[in-house]
Amino acid sequence: MKKLNLIDKFLFFLNSIAATILLLAYILPYIEPKRFAFLSVLSLTVPFLIILNLLFVVYWLLKVKKQLLLSLIILLIGFNHVASLYKMSASKQVDDIDNIAVMNFNVRLFNVFKWIPDIDAAQEISQFIQEKKPDIISMQEYRPDDGLKLKDYHRFEAVGGERIKNGQAIFSKFPIVNTGSIEFPSTYNNAIFADVVRGKDTIRIYNVHLQSLKIDANSDPLKNEAAENLFRRVGSTFRMQQAQADLFLEHKANSTYKTIICGDFNNTAYSYVYKKIKGDYLRDAFVEAGNGFGRTFDFKFFPVRIDFILVDQNFDINGFRTYNVKLSDHFPIMSKVKLR
Question: Is the pLDDT of residue 40 over 80?
Fold first, then answer.
């Protein structure tokens, strides 16, 4: 520190704070939100903290200062967190006749309130799906819309509400032999499932939509709400998500089928609910086959990945892609998987 000028000393002080908070954030997936809801809110800042610490590494590297070791060591300790934010390797793409293309897309009610001007969302989403040809589609914030024209798909939808019917839906090119819904109390969010038959195999498809944070993608939350109130509200939402994840896992534990889980978790890969749902047995399609930033939500401040496709050990993951199309506040993701 003696060889640092006053500005660099101040920057290293900020660097130390950023590194310490990131290190603390590494343990958040192991802390139940219902016990420490305030701390769990920090999981939302992990993408920003990773990027900030990377910038500090670059800064000290250009200055040829040993202070770069602080953030570098913290980033190496949390290498799996960094890999969940950005994949430096090329996307894995294995073409196989037996691949099953699985898409997840939060369609935001097909833009019914005209958040995005000058588009017919249902029609354009129909055209997008027709072009990409997924075998299975999981949709959140779905509502019945005559503009959605999907040919050759079996459909299961679970919708409710008085003003606008909305909920979740699963579309499948394979026959659907069983369906159901896992209701979450005091909310329109839920999880649904459909058992589909492909050849001799029955595959259970889950569509999970956990409680929303209700944060506008394009506004600064701190400008619209006091920080204390924001933390309290987000902490309360995380407690609800934990209870919802427990209900979902209780249902999943009774299934003996090969399983694919799609959904909008409304939380990141650094959260307790993600770790709880993924467990040690499921695999994240983006982590294994994606590349670049795993951004699935159109948040203007830093990349956020809150939409997931998880598969069990009965599948090989042969591809993953996030599509940068502006048809919702979420971006569609698709993975190609193959039954072993």
Answer: no
